[in-house]
Amino acid sequence: MRQLQILASTSDLPKIEKIVLAMEASSFWYSSVDVMNAEKVIITVQVSNRSLGELLDQLSELKEVEVFFFLMGIIGLTPANAKLQNQIADLEPRSPVEVFLQSIHSVDSWSNFLVFAVTGAIVV
Description:
Layout: E1 2-9, H1 13-22, E2 27-35, E3 38-47, H2 52-59, E4 66-69, H3 84-87, H4 96-105, H5 110-123
Antiparallel strand pairs: 1-3, 1-4, 2-3
């Protein structure tokens, strides 16, 4: 993965967005900037190494486009999908006894340790 920053005029934004989305970029965001009294946008995009050459070829056809990229590779992370809750195997609320045992187990004193041991012996 490579992270690119593209400096372009605001009129080229729809064209660049179309090109980048055709490359199946993992992320795409932009912000407006003022460069020497000219309204421009900085577009940050993450693309795979395989599609980098083709993307640069298509961007070179546009006027007044500057591309900056870091020589280090990055790992593109995407947020979890909405179905994640259904995929988790063991998702249950804690019982009051578990909460009580956890609270007295975390406190360092002999009295709480004895209460924890007695409660644990009764439950088991």
